[in-house]
Amino acid sequence: MRLTHYGQPPPRRSDWQTIKSLLPYLWEFRGRVILALVFLAAAKVSNVAVPLVLKEIVDAFDTPQAMLALPIFLFVAYGLLRLGNSLFGELRDAVFAKVTQRSIRRVALQVFEHLHRLSLHFHLERQMGGVSRDIERGTAGIRFLLNFMLFNILPTLIEIAFVAAILFVKYDPWFAVITLATLVVYVIYTLLITEWRMIFRRSMNEMDSKANTRAIDSLLNYETVKYFGNESYEARRYDDTLQHWEKAAVRNQTSLSVLNAGQGFIIAVGVTLLMLLAGWHVQQRTMTLGDLVLVNAFLLQLYMPLHFLGFVYREIRHSLADMERMFGLLEQHEEVRDKPGAPDLLVTRGHIRFEHVAFSYDSRRPILHEVSFDIPAGHKVAVVGASGAGKSTLSRLLFRFYDVTGGRILIDGRDIRDVTQKSLRRAIGIVPQDTVLFNDTIYYNIAYGHPDAVHAEVIQAAKAAHIHQFVESLPDKYDTLVGERGLKLSGGEKQRVAIARTLLKNPPILVFDEATSALDSKTEKAIQAELKDLAANHTTLVIAHRLSTILDAEQILVMEHGRIVERGTHAELLARNGIYAHLWALQLQEEQEQPKMAVGNGLTAG
Known about the structure:
Blueprint: H1 15-28, H2 30-61, H3 72-117, H4 120-125, H5 128-170, H6 173-220, H7 222-227, H8 231-283, H9 289-330, E1 352-362, E2 365-375, E3 380-385, H10 391-398, E4 406-411, E5 414-415, H11 421-426, E6 428-431, H12 442-447, H13 455-464, H14 468-472, H15 491-505, E7 509-513, H16 521-535, E8 539-543, E9 555-560, E10 563-568, H17 570-576, H18 579-605
Parallel strand pairs: 3-8, 3-9, 6-7, 7-8
Antiparallel strand pairs: 1-2, 1-4, 4-5, 9-10
Domain ABC transporter: 352-586
Domain ABC transmembrane type-1: 34-318
Protein name: Metal ABC transporter permease
């Protein structure tokens, strides 16, 4: 089974499903849509009436009395109809503009919000470059579909119906028969060839998204590329995708030439037959010279929109293909959803309880087994263990990025699955191990913890996180841009921004996921003092790497292979002489060796 670049099977949608997805947005502005259609009909009536007036003008001049009286009324009517066609068309576009732009805005917002509602699993699997390109092409497709389907295909069909009716009623029925036969053959040919060409268009879209994904991923990891000297390797990977895109694009353009040539041939045959028939009728004096001009004018009016109709249909099919991928994002399943009518979480004390919690990302590979522990209100509990023991999974489950597969997690006695995710996450603050910042100013990134906070509160949070002095030393101070993912700051500086952001949020529950692992010893001790004061009034879960940072924890949990194998205070665990005591001894040994290594390196350098 073919997979998309999101790691999920590609959703298959019919064209009608895609079009139907837009109807609610049109219904919101049904008054404007109806008015636009009225202007559209008026424009087409004016356009069809122009050849009729032109016929009367030609016939008026074709009589012996033509030089005696100038048909001023007919010339005025001709000018007014030309003006009406243009004026009603512009009014139609002006009235419908808000419908198109609002629809694009609403759909783009809906996709954006849905992406934020999807689980962490989706975002770990997805490739953002491809997703952003799909949204970009999808919104452009909406604009094209709404404008051209309503204002090109529909009016062209109306105009063809008007012309065929006039030709059938006023002239030889063969005029209408040839016109309709040409249209039918043209439409069938266009449908068949366009469906064949859609294979190349979809392949182009897939390769375009893949190329964009690779480019963005490579540029975001610029330093890694440089570290390993893999510029040429990245260029080859990018060009490999572009090569596949090029092949699909060439086939797409070649097949377009086949389509255009065939359409031109069909129209040319139809026009030739109609003009031969009109010429024969003029020769037989069953039609006037004005009638010949009328038929010719109708054919000219039909030729361009009919030829354009093929282009519009092709582009609409392309737009539907583009929109298919974007709307497919909306069909991605929300793995973590609020229960209907779920209330907000009201934290009164902040007591956290894990009861027999089990979890697995994949049923074949369990991560947590029967994990149970309590964090009493205002207490500090630390979790330690080797990498892969399941420590960070605890914080993800607490935030409900995933739902537990067994057991339950309670806050103040309430299952977190029974409350809204928004209120749950509002009650918890986290400083993660890997801090990612927005490509904005330092002030913005700190204030993100509480966007409504006043300037003084942001500065106070920065001071508490011991980053204020560093920020003030920068040329642009708090207006300094941190770069993509915060790459202009060091690891320690990014982590201090993250700590300030969490301090500003000031939630009742705190999670520190190895929060000081990137800090130097001096800064770590200063921040640990602040965190200790903060934790005194908050329920705190600390996922620790350095055991020296959790000596004051009321309880320390030691995890191994997804299970809690030891628990107790620092002193109790050392007295037990188990896994924790072994980890403590290893860290003491590392700390003792570091000064010796530093001295040795200094002597060597000298």
